[in-house]
Amino acid sequence: MVQYILRRILQAIPLLLIISFVLFAFTNSLGDPMAVFAESRQRPTAAEREMMRVRLGLDRPVIEQYIIWMVGNDWMLIDARGDGVELTPGTRQGVLRGDLGMSFVTRQPAWTRIEERLPATLTLMIPAYTITLILALAIGVYSATHQYTFLDNLITGAAFFFYSMPIFFIALLTIYIFSVQASRWDLPALPIGGTGNGSFVDLVVHMIMPVFCLVAIQLAAYVRFIRSSMVEVLGQDYIRTAHAKGLGQNTVVQRHALKNAALPLITLIGLDLPFLLAGAVVTERIFAWPGMGRLFIESFERADIPVMMAILMLLCLMVVTFQILTDIVYTWFDPRIRY
Amino acid sequence: MTTIQQVQPVVTLQPVKGRSNLQRSFARLGRHRMAIVGAALLTLVVLFVLIGSLVIPEREAVFNDPSRALQFPSAEHPFGTDVIGRDLLARTVYGGQVSLFVGVTAVIVQMFVGTLVGLVAGYMGGALDSLLMRLAEAMLSIPQLFLALIALRLFSDPTQFPDFEFLGRDYSSTMIVIVFVIGLTSWMRVARIVRSVVLSVKEQEYVTAARSIGARSGRIIFQHVLPNCLAPIIVSATLGVASAILLEAYLGFLGLGVRAPTPTWGNIMGQANSYINQWYYWFFPAVFIMLTTLGINFLGDGLRDAFDPRSLR
Predict the structure, then answer these.
(1) Prediction ipTM score
(2) Residue A109's beta-bridge partner residues?
(3) How many angstroms separate the CA of residue B152 from the nearest CA in chain A?
(4) Number of Cβ pairs closer than 8 Å across A and B?
(5) Looking at the whole model, is its pTM more than 0.80?
(6) Which of A51, A174, A283, A334 could pair with A82 in a Cys bridge, judged by C-beta atoms 3.0 to 4.6 Å apart?
(7) H/E/C letters for each residue in B208-247?
(8) In A30-149, where does DSSP find H-type helix?
(9) How far is residue A257's CA from residue A242's CA, in Å, rounded to a whole number?
């Protein structure tokens, strides 16, 4: 087991290296981060822009920039004033030592930018995901144990319906009904966007609509997944055996069927959990939620490469970590699997 | 002396009228209720954008008149007008054509790249295989919208491509950019499916037999490998159109998709985002996006059932 985990970690390292290099090459060689400064109030001259490029090290070849990004530049002298003389020792420590670089736009460490946004994203995504899972388990199991009844058909139809809906449609509809129309009819209206005034109650009130939308969008896929794996398990011989030895329906479903049907669900959750960190770009945009999705879009629009790279690498690291964790957790739940 | 008589066979063997697997699958599809509903929905949407463009001239979709901005739906403008007074019915019709076109062509790109990568990886094996599969894995570990944004940077300056004219209508160059952005960021699952089919087919006896009589790789690929990939490719292409249309809509919604003057369902939604009070502004394009993806998902689900070798009906 330990050997297996070690091997997986060793395999993950080259993968992360490939990802980081490809992403770095793409984000860096395309688009000019200096173009943003050209639109600022004090428009820099061409010479000043060139100097800034040199100071940020953007004039170096991509491969050299990548190495600096990885291991830092405190072991070499850099041209800090942009006058062609390399005198000042570098200050960057590199990703491998936990330095994700400075944001081009705000001049803060990229990690600080992420730290600012991550809590907001998690406050939104974790409750939404938890509610989705609980509802999906309840609905999916009901649907599977009541196959081809009216309610099951209704659930399957509704699942398809919500699965096909673009999230902005649900979001705009809920805003229109519960904010716009509700205030028109003098009913208590829900706030349209933002995170509220800081109090917990206000935060929850602001979360109702975005969480509802996220649940509505995600739920369908999970319900369909749980229903189909439940249906498969319910057709197994050991379920018939359990029924035959006189166990009640609830015991059979909970103790025998659900436990086995939950196994593929673990893999699905393990694959989806890291993506919660990415936030929900469109939902955050509509509800003015200051999360990671919006941070990525903002960094993208301003060509803030260090922040983009920091977000992307954080995600990839999480995906890889969760894949390994999922495999480990899986062996606990399914003792048939040995590594 | 006994004469040997010609014995007439009791049963005459008649050539069985063969139906290929594909034909059987499509017969099964015809009996799939959801698939029929899906196909009907799609037909409705396609008829809407086609007949609509015959009835409404194209200039209606771009003609603006600020004096009639944000009008409620009326007999003259059944879907109302947008913020600069363009007729939203015309924009939904012509935007729909672009959205559907982008969805289908993006999937063609996606299928081409995916099949090619899957074939090469599965057939060649070795270092190339693991490199390509690591790349697919890497791209799968980033949300597709993020990937699309990075790919958008590839074509960072949209003005470097000229706007073009096709069949007498002007289109924004960004339309082609978006097609490739979507196609090049969604091939990974197809590549994985094709690769796994290739790996299993490669070990079959008939492939060994074909190779032993001297068939070249090209012949083996086109004669034996690709036909076996056909079913999963058709299913994922169908479902892929739905996700391509959704991705186009999300990009358009964020203001990063196809640019003016070309309308799409996505960029109409993007403009309508600030006018939530005017429900007719965002409602109709969203409904059409939904009907399209719903129809495709129904159809795709039916196709999956029809091609499933376990459902032998």
Answers:
(1) 0.84
(2) A102
(3) 10
(4) 109
(5) yes
(6) A51
(7) HHHHHCCCCHHHHHHHHHHHHHHHHHHHHHHHHHHHHHHH
(8) 34-38, 46-55, 62-71, 110-145
(9) 10
